[in-house]
Amino acid sequence: MNGKGELAVSRRGVIVGGTSAVALASLPASGQERAQAQPSASMPPAAMPVAFEVNGAPVELTLDTRTTLLDALREHLKLTGTKKGCDHGQCGACTVIVNGQRINSCLSLAVQHQGDTVKTIEGLGTPANLHPMQAAFIKHDGYQCGYCTPGQICSAVAVLDEIKAGVPSHAQDDITAKPRVTSDELRERMSGNICRCGAYSNIAEAILETAGAKA
Amino acid sequence: MKSFTYERAKTPAEAAGSVAKASGAKFLAGGTNLLDLMKLEIETPTHLVDVQDIGLDTIEKTKDGGLRIGALVTNTALASDQRIRRDYGVLSRAIVAGASGQLRNKATTAGNLLQRTRCPYFYDTNMACNKRQPGSGCAAIQGYSRQLGVIGTSDSCIATYPGDMAIALRVLDATIATVKPDGATRTIAMADFHRLPGDTPQFDTVLERGELITHVDLPRPIGGQHVYRKVRDRASYAFALVSVAAVIQPDGKVRAAFGGMAPKPWRVEAGEAGLHEDPAAAMETIFSGARPTEDNAFKIPLAQRALASAVAQTRS
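ok -> structure tokens follow
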């Protein structure tokens, strides 16, 4: 009996002790729930209409407000040339050209683009009629797996326009000077496009050649 | 991402009113930092007020010879402006030292000021972070702190302000103009705009709820040679370990503000006066009271060397 009694007590002790340990351990979690208990928890997704132009064609969509421009292009318009890499603006695979400027389409909501003009890799060239930058990437082997390539090419096309427009870069010694197309300039300006295969030197050559051909 | 409703405001006052009215509302400008944080559910706004249609996208001369920069001028447009490049070179240099071309095309002047820390413990929702979740503690203090703050920090938070542009604005004595939901306007000196954490690190700036930045004002040009020196783990597209925005005058006098060191751009005018004569003593004054960790104590000598290198560059 004694043994059982001791056992029961110690069991109860274990249970009580265990419960209080659980309660203590869950304190921060409860705090977290309180801190995050905002109306959003129960808010249903909101949908909105948005209209913009993609590769010369007008599109109208009704989208969950959370839809990024990247997901609108890929999942709703089936333009899967633009790639989702990190989805956090770190890799550049999602780069598209909006109103003439390159942006990360993953860090932009589709509803922010009402009335905008979007150009994706599909709008730059076709297999039968390549954009000069696409042709130069093929010629110089500016890729291996190809996943980052649409973003690299959209970015590269926009970089040459930025240099032409006189947008300065960190690679310039004289910030007031007109920028030039050099390998150092291109490497700095393309730093927002990561290539996991490491085709950087061929990418730089492809862009340099395209810039020369245009000049 | 938590769901939210979305509207576009037509005027600055309307935007401020909309954010003040709806609990959980936030302004949306470029969105490059906010959307990233929303995906991670570090930011969970229930309503976004998009300010892209409210104007504020030009750079105008002021009557006292300075420049008034609209809050929505993009980082690319600001860095490219000929007047900025000629008269406020440190600002252009700081901007192009940060982020990537894609991000600078979208990011705005006001949004850049309001970007949040990149402390890894702020980003990891499994970790205690008083800035993300007040009262939960600070995992960074006993954690991996190589990137984190050495001065101006507190027992609640050792995160740094991550940006480059603001470091240059601090050295240029810029001021920030805002409008409140009731239509009242005020001017805030860069020195006072970002807060030290104390025991309320969840507030990065002195802005009140619904208060909207409308402009950043630069005083008349101060001349001198402008340098922004940024030391980081890779040559491009990385946050600063240490950065220095410096303006060096022909008589050798130096103004210097430091990034990567503190929860705000770090500039101590009292110490700065001695920088051209006895830099070591001046740096001791500027960083007096520093509380580095074992991992980030290197930042203080690195800051001194970064400044020495910047000054040497102007003499060559």
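The longest helix of chain B spans residues 299-315.
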